[in-house]
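tool_log.txt
---
The assistant was asked to compare two proteins side by side. It first ran the structure predictor on the initial sequence, then on the second. Raw inputs and outputs are pasted verbatim so the downstream comparison step can read them without reformatting.
(1)
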Amino acid sequence: MRAVVNSHAIIWAVILTFGPLGLPLIWLSPKYSIWSKSLVTLVTLGVTVVLPIAVTLYCAQFLVHPVLDAMQEANAAGGAF
C-alpha cells in the first residue's frame, strides 16, 4: 500500500480513471500539502458534479427540445400520420 500512496503516477491514474474514488489515495500520500490535497479534492468533486449536469442540460437543449417541438407541430397539424 505504501508504494501506491507514494507513487504520483498511480495516484493520478486512479483519480483520472475512477474520479472521487481515488481521493483517499491523495489524502493518504505524504507527498502532497494540505492545500494541494484540498484543491485536487475540490476540482475532482466539481468535475464529478458539474460535468454530468452540463451534459444533461446540453442534451436536453439541443437533442430533446427539437424533437418535442416537432412532435407538437405534427400534433397541431392533425397528427404525425
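(2)
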Amino acid sequence: MIRITSTQQAESLKGILPELVIKRMQEFEGTDDIYDPDIFGYLIWLEPGDDLTQLTDLAQGGLYDLLDNEWLGFEHVELHREVGRDIYEMVVAIDADKTIAVFLEAGPWLDLHLIEVLKAEAAAHSS
C-alpha cells in the first residue's frame, strides 16, 4: 500500500504507479500552495498482497466496510484501462474537505465479492 501525498512523490514512483495515479495526484494537488494532505486528502495505490482490512483511512474495518454498509460507500468508482491493465479508481469523501482516492489493479488477488461490487459501482457511476 502506497500513500501518495504529493505530485513529487507520485512522479518519483513512475514505473511503479500507473500513469493514471500520477495524473490524478497532479490534478488533486493543483498549482496552489495551500494543498495539505492532512486536510484535503491523498491517494492510495493498493498492491497485490495488501491487507484491505488495514485500510483504516477509509473506515474502521478497511475497504470491506465500504462494500456492505449503506451509510458508508464510494462517491465515485470508475474502471480505467491503461496499457492492458484494468485499474479501479474509488473516491471516498471522508468529510466536507477531505477526500481519499484509492486505486488498484484488477486481478486474481482480489476477493470475488470486492470485484463484483467494484464492477457494479463502476457501471452505475458510468451511466
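---
observation on (2): The CA atoms of residues 16 and 117 lie 26 Å apart. The mean pLDDT is 87.
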